[in-house]
Amino acid sequence: MRVIVTRPEREAQRWVADLSARGVQALALPLIELGAVDDRSEMTRVAQQIGDYVGVMFVSANAVDHFFASTESVAALWGPRSAIRSRAWATGPGTANALSRAGVAPQRLDVPPADAAQFDSEALWQVVGPQVHAGERVLIVRGADEADAGQTAAGSGRDWFARQVLACGAQAEFVVAYQRRAPVFSLSQSELARNAASDGSIWLFSSAQAVRNLLVSLPGQSWLQARAIATHARIASSARAAGFGAVLESRPTLSDVVAALESWDEPRS
Predict the structure, then answer these.
(1) Choosing a second label site near 32 at 20 to 30 A (CA), which of 131, 152, 156, 168?
(2) How far, in Å, CA of 96 to CA of 128, rounded?
(3) For helices 9-21 and 254-262, what crossing angle results, to 10°?
(4) E-state strands within 42-104
(5) pLDDT tens digits, the chain, 269 residues: what are they?
């Protein structure tokens, strides 16, 4: 059994190493490339107003890393002795760990419990929803696709979370911390992907965007014989819509992904 890890390069290599340590053959084929935004002025502006937000929701560890890299002074505002009321909100443990590395004190951080059914906006809202009241402001730090350039930040991102904020009579604002791009496959990567469409490999998807980028990179490729594990129901739906013949859902933790892999019988010849 071979796993194709589709996360961005840095995360993909870490997952390959972790899976390999668990005895799973894994290869990295990043389907999303990340880059800094050209104009950081909006991040600078919101960083100067952090104390005005009841909470700042980070959609991913990448959102954390790029936001703090561009606004280094923000970390001190979330230190243990800071007087600001603003909370840092993480969608899952990976994002929470990134916030901790950035200097956010544990007592200023909210994240879904470790035994949550899923790590996503919905699970986070169950934790932080009671903190949001009418008239308050919430900031959502997210990434954007190149196609979003020139559009308002609220055009995509954690729209479901923003709707819950609005329903409370509060204001939801977005800021783009990084750009996502589709990769340009080399000949060897294209060959790897085409072979993995039918050789029994298992694709590991942690983003619906990765599924879409794969379709763009290999137009016309049939995925009927391909297998995938998706770390969220919405991602699983995207994989099925793309034509993947078999899709399993898993929580986005190493142990859960390995358990899902072990539950899958070897492909029939």
Answers:
(1) 152
(2) 14
(3) 60
(4) 55-58, 87-90
(5) 899 999 999 999 999 999 999 999 999 999 999 999 988 889 988 988 888 999 999 999 999 999 988 776 676 677 777 777 899 999 999 999 999 998 888 899 999 999 998 899 999 999 999 999 999 999 999 998 865 544 434 434 478 999 999 999 999 999 999 999 999 999 999 999 999 999 999 999 999 999 999 999 999 999 999 999 999 999 999 999 999 999 999 999 999 999 999 998 654 44
Cα–Cα distance for residue pair 103/85, rounded to 1 Å: 16
HEC letters along 90-117: ECCHHHHHHHHHHCCCHHHEECCCCCCC
For the record, the structure tokens of 141 come out as 């730090």
Task: Tell me, yes or no, whether 111 and 155 share the same domain.
Answer: yes
Q: What is the pTM of this model?
A: 0.88
Strands of 55-58's sheet in order across: 33-36, 171-181, 137-145, 55-58, 87-90, 109-110
How many CB atoms are closer than 10 A to CB 208? 18
SS3 content of the chain, % helix, strand, coil (to 5): 40, 20, 40
Which of 160, 181, 202 marks a domain boundary? 181
Distance between CA atoms of residues 225 and 100, nearest Å: 41
Torsion of the alpha carbons at 28, 31, 36 and 39, rounded to the nearest 10: 180
Q: Confirm whether 257 is domain-assigned.
A: yes
Please count the other Cβ atoms lying within 10 Å of the Cβ belonging to residue 116.
Answer: 17
State the residue range of the domain holding 244.
Answer: 2-32+183-262
Same domain for 160 and 198, yes or no, is no
